[in-house]
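Lab notebook page, bench 4
Experiment: in silico fold of construct C2
Operator: M.H.
Input chain length: 478 residues
Purpose: comparison with the prior construct
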Amino acid sequence: MPDLLGATNPVPNYDTSSARITPPTPNGDTNIQNVVDPNRVVRPDGQEGQQGSGDATNSFGARFESNFMTFVQRLRGAQDLPQLFLQVLQGQTVEVSSGIRSGFASEMAQFLDFIRMDESELANFLETQMQSGSRFTGALFALLRGAYNDPVTSEMTKNDILLFLRRFADYTSTEHIEANILRMTDEMTEALPGKWSQQLTDVLAQLENSIDAGDREGSLKLLREQVFSLVSKYVSMTHDHGLARNLLSAMTLDVARYENGNEDAMLEALRHLASSNVLPRELAELSNPELLRVLREADFFKATQSNTFAERMAKATHRALSGEAGVDMQEAFHHIMNSVLINESVYMPLQHYMLPMNWNGRLAFSEMWVDPDAERGNRKAQGSGDPVQRVLIKMDIDSLGAFDVLIQNRSEGVSMLVTCPQPVAEHSSQITQSLRDILGRNGLNVEQVQVVEQRRPLTVSEVFPQLFERMSGVNVKI
């Protein structure tokens, strides 16, 4: 498996540029380093153990054991997203200034108008993000989740459930996959020379028409028989292992997902689950349009249609990284995108939400991390067998500074820790009482509320130590 996070740190004490010559050892020298001890397993370079072993949660030096440890290192370095996002929002005005091309500022102005919200709009915005963040919500997927976790369910049935979920995930990603395929095909036309580029340009025009018409099978036929065939022939004849070949390799996964997300195959997998008594048998008797209507009643479909935040943010990021803003804005957007990718990584077992706000004229940006598995009682409070649910909120408020809010829910009640800038901490008693009143009005039993000055920001890994559960897995990094 390749290094998905792009870690390129050199391995210590290892240099392939020159051969290492071992001087001869004098007779009688007892300091011999190459004696093999059959009772121990040693590395070729003579070093013992893993780097940083025994200190997995506190050692954040360069590590080379796994992709996951690289992810944890990057996660700790991505704590400044609120400050970066606030910098972007503060740096944009409704007028075009030097270093920003026409259109970018007006787009950011629309973005600023979008995040202007009151209390009710904030609740709707957060709910929309939560619903659009997970495809597998609603009654239908609750039944599938229950059947999959049932110990009496056979392995064959579990595989059928996973097959449907994969097809459903690819089906709901159709628009994104099609955009990726068109983008990579267009980049291939620029990477190919002369007649090869012209031939692929003609195929690209046909592919765009086919996708616009919703003809998945026709698009797949064009991809297999013309795009792949043409670029593969070019690579074979010219031995050019450059950009075009790399793009073709990257496109393979998207084409496989595009084929797997076929609507008819997805619905057939759903019917099979209904006929196997995993789902109500009535589903198997519905027509395809009726089945699609059932699926589209899921919160995910409704939320993605109304969630314009992600689309606007993606457009603003694309234009900024394309050079349509100043160097400072380009660097800020780069760090924001890097942080978002880390928090949405397949390694992250937490749900992550972003909350940009313009509250009564004051700009603020917040991030929230929630453990979705805590509801099952899998997480235990340290030193006891009591299940615990945690929510970490990090925010940066214009003219006030950075805040960390840790909310912990146990059977005894809710406890809250707020770390804030020193000027705010001076009013800790008043803030503590206000927070207690808010929690009480919402029917929560308050165990403890603390408001203290922030000495250092809380890290995601220390609030959610279960991140390191992945460390017991197989080393997949090359």
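Observations: The first helix runs from residue 67 to 76. DSSP finds 18 helices and six strands in the chain.
Next step: discuss at group meeting.
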